[in-house]
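Dear colleague,

Thank you for sharing your sequence with our group. We've completed the structure prediction you requested, and as agreed, I am returning the results in plain text so they can be pasted directly into your records. Please verify that the sequence below matches your submission; if there's any discrepancy, let me know and we will rerun it promptly.
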Amino acid sequence: MSRMVTIGSANQDIYLIDHDDFESVEVGDVSIFGGLPIGTKADIDKVCYLVGGSGVNPAVTFARYGHEAIFMGNIAKDAAGEAVLAGLDTEDIDSSYVETVPGRTGCHVVLLDAKTGAHTTLSYQGVSAKYDNLRAEELENIQPDWLYATSLHGDMEKLLEFFEQAHAVGAKVMFNPGPQELAKKAKLIGLLDEVDVLLVDKAEAAEIVPGVLLTELLAHLANYCPIVLITDGVMGAIATDRKESYRLGVYEQKHVRDATGAGDAFGSGFLADFAENGKFERALKFAAANAAKVTQRYGAWAGILTGDEELHPMPIQKIEDLAGWN
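Please find the predicted structure tokens below.
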């Protein structure tokens, strides 16, 4: 098993779930979620108080798989921060590098339509909006095998600091950038030289490199990173390690209860299995299964697999010639 460090956000997730009050309303060409008239009171069916965040979600996958998981991020001294620490403790994730800073812990309020699985998230970043207090030199003490980095709210200098320090201690880097990093395209492309595994969705890939087809985007990104994973929602995913390339369907065509955390589950599922077995195709299948199981439960943690499950066959096709990669 490996030692995995994750950096990114940690927050409390509050789910408001209902089967009729959150139906979408069409306004011109835009679909407005939750047609609630101003000033009214709606009785909802269910509320769930959970923990999530782009930094802690992958750590849960690593810990359940059996890896040593260490989370680095910020919380505040409040009830939400206590909930985050309790969640990490329950999942046996090392929280000794979590920083408690002044302010408020991040909070996401998820309005979820129980009939369709559609949702809108109201996001308060809180102390996860800044990461200048995190110290990359801590990796010298931790000696990780992998650094799994998610969005640091556009702090490209801090990301570079962590990537360089990770490589200095012999660790590899997996990176899942967020909107703030994508908005700084030139700096993001510069960072990719330090990335061993890149995880993006189709729309994000198109913001970084030219192309329309998934194969085009994959080939162009493979010029920057040795392993590239591109997710495409219900259409599955595509991936390459420069030696083999695959198209993946969805692991299970079941009703999506909640897609929150599915991307985190795919990326961390891939790395959890790949770090243990080193088999690219096998790791992709586990990634797809982990993501599918997460969408069938509420919240980003409930469906996460352990690696002991027997996986059934799934749609996967080898791409014989990935044009554009050289």
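Summary note from our side: The mean pLDDT is 94.

Kind regards,
the structure core
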